[in-house]
Specification:
single chain, about 375 residues, alpha/beta, 2 domains, eight-stranded mixed sheet, 8 strands, about 40% helix
Length: about 375
Amino acid sequence: MEDEDDDMVREGLIASPREIFSISGPIHLTSIDWNNSYHRTSVASCLVQAVYTLERDRQQSRIGLRSQANHWWEFFNFTLAETLIDQSDSSIYGAVFEYKLFSYNYHNNPHSKMPPRHVIAFRGTIMKRHSRSRDLRLDLRCIRDCLQDSTRFVHAIEVIQTAVAKTGNAAVWLAGHSLGAAVALLAGKIMTRNGFPLETYLFNPPFSSIPIEKLVKSEKLKHGVRFAGSVVKAGVAIAVKGRNHHNKGQEDDSFMKLASWIPYLYVNPSDPICSEYIGYFKHRNKMFEIGAGKIEMIATRNSLRSLLSGGGSRGGGGGSSCSDSSSEPLHLLPSAYMTINTSKSPDFKRAHGLHQWWDPMFNGEYVLHQFNH
């Protein structure tokens, strides 16, 4: 009978249990305390799951009572305000959710955490034939640090700017998982630099560099590899940017503008896609501890690839699939409130999955990384 059910899920005749809120969702959260970080995390991650399920409903032609997505937002008193469609393959990649019970003034109660007016959520890669090709091309853009040139991202940032223009940045949250976390992270950086920092929830965001944290077991060796990398990066940055003092000042200012923005970062040590964030922040702290803070101050805001490909400046090439002058890598983050899942994950699928973040049995380690300049 189980094999029969699996076949029916594959053929789209029935939904996967992971898409059904009453089976896989946090049904114990009947009342939301917006001051509780677990509650906020659960809401944000479930709204991202809603986007995945919207796209699966579309792919499987599940409509009416067979559709599953609405349960993921209705349970938390949200409505679907807008569905975000990728013009390349007509897939649903994101959604704008509106909180129904919103009747607060954001300036009246500074001690209480206010619910969002809008949550803009983005899904990650779906390895099904309707969406796989486009999603994998965008994954490649994440690795090459040119996601900002994609039509999906350009559309996403327009939607975010419209929401902020309507209700103000204090009332808008961003949330995303995997590829969707990359979209949310890049959008969050742009909005912050423009003076509109947004509360942002990033689940298993991709780190576009070698996952030393996962590949190297010895802590001493990890530090040695990263220390050498920092020295090389700092040296190249001084050599490249020393020729252009004006650009250097602009880039430093751009990085510092991000320092006060503290997105919520959710990573699993067993997930090679995001685990390097753990080492990235740990290494930065270690460098300051051993008195190499000046080297790290330069290294932490640069990537070797962007330095060698033109010092990280933006240029033309918009007509190509990826512009020649890459932007800074996504993972260059001054500050983050990082949640690390310390529970053992049996496989990659579970380690990279979204469901772990609302699991009531979740074991987490919480670290605030604030950039001090």
